[in-house]
What we know:
Layout: E1 17-20, H1 24-37, E2 41-45, H2 49-59, E3 63-65, H3 68-73, E4 80-83, H4 87-93, E5 102-105, H5 113-125, E6 129-132, H6 140-150, E7 157-165, H7 183-199, E8 204-210, E9 222-228, E10 234-240, E11 251-258, E12 261-266, E13 280-285, E14 293-296, H8 306-319, H9 329-348
Helix pairs in contact: 5-9, 7-9
The structure holds nicotinamide-adenine-dinucleotide.
Nicotinamide-adenine-dinucleotide binds at residues 20-26, 45-48, 51, 84-87, 89, 92, 106-107, 133, 135, 173-175, 186.
Amino acid sequence: MIELQTSCAMPDRPRPILGIGAGGIVRDAHLPAYKIAGFEHVGLYDPDIGKAKTLADQFDVPSVFGSMEEALEGAPDDVVFDVAVPGGVVRKIIPQLPDGAAVLIQKPLGLNLEDARHLCAVCRDKQLIAAVNFQLRYAPPIIALRSLVDRGLLGDLHDIQMQVTLWTPWELWDFLKTEKRVEILYHSIHYLDMIRFFAGDPHGVFARVNRAPGQPDLADVKSSIILDYGDLLRVTVSANHCHEGGLANQESYVRLEGSEGVAKVTLGLCMDYPRGRPDVFEYCLFGDGTPSWETLDIEGTWMPHAFIGTMASVMAKAEDPSRPLPTSVDDALRTMAVVEAAYLSSASGSTPIDYGD
Ligand SMILES: NC(=O)c1ccc[n+]([C@@H]2O[C@H](COP(=O)([O-])OP(=O)(O)OC[C@H]3O[C@@H](n4cnc5c(N)ncnc54)[C@H](O)[C@@H]3O)[C@@H](O)[C@H]2O)c1
């Protein structure tokens, strides 16, 4: 059995965190992750003050602010702002942050590529240390997968497949009902970002999004995406969030196949979201004999543990500017560009078939 890295780099001295937005993801992932990491959370602001108060009580957060202005006044100098609001609100929040501040922004970086470009420019003008919360890269099984790849154990990658067939309770996010883009912008964006983490930037995208007949209030809730990396690497993301067959035959896995081996990581989180099911990390190194599969026990999962990594990366960068910030807003802009291209591809339609009729 091989040993793989599963943990992320941590700052030498964690900074205090101030949360802007106190919704479901802050309750289910941000605050639990920061508790595990021992990060100090100094306060929460949400226009729904009741929500902020409930979370503050539950997680021993000392301050709840009545307005954004109060939150900014109450923020310690070395704070990291933790923005977790709907994509359409990010554009309103970032310009209000003090120049030079450190901030972690929940994905998506705005509603589209134009928003993302604007937000990057604002971050640059204000000299913010700013990253997007693409935390899937920091999920312990994905760190392990990356370490398998970096050690060359899979050889040259020729196939990456992200497969999702499950039921997603979209009703948890009220704000989605008015969004023009749902599945790729709010969900598969994580997979696109993770694939960039493994394979770099694709040259192009073919995509088709679909709505669900039983969910008339929502825009796209399914997608089929092919990322073009040229002749020698096939990459697909296929996401069906409308599977009504219960938990038995769900799928949620990423499979990386190379010249020397293959690894399959089942990500349990979205199967029965937000409770999740166990992850499974399996790999098979070809060697000289008959291929045989091993299963590795990995401690920690996407939610909440991955959320430690993105926050730690911002703290570490704020401490020492020479350190990397893997999900910086400038890097996230490239993931947003892939998302935009996927929607454009879907809108531009498929190649007509000449049946000769
Ligand atoms: N794995 C992940 O990374 C993950 C998972 C779920 C959600 N998210 C992202 O997190 C964001 C929030 O999702 P959620 O699940 O918490 O949704 P939610 O609807 O439960 O909460 C959103 C919160 O934002 C608050 N809000 C709205 N405007 C605000 C403002 N101007 N200032 C401060 N707060 C404001 C709302 O009052 C609400 O409490 C979304 O953009 C979503 O994409 C990420």
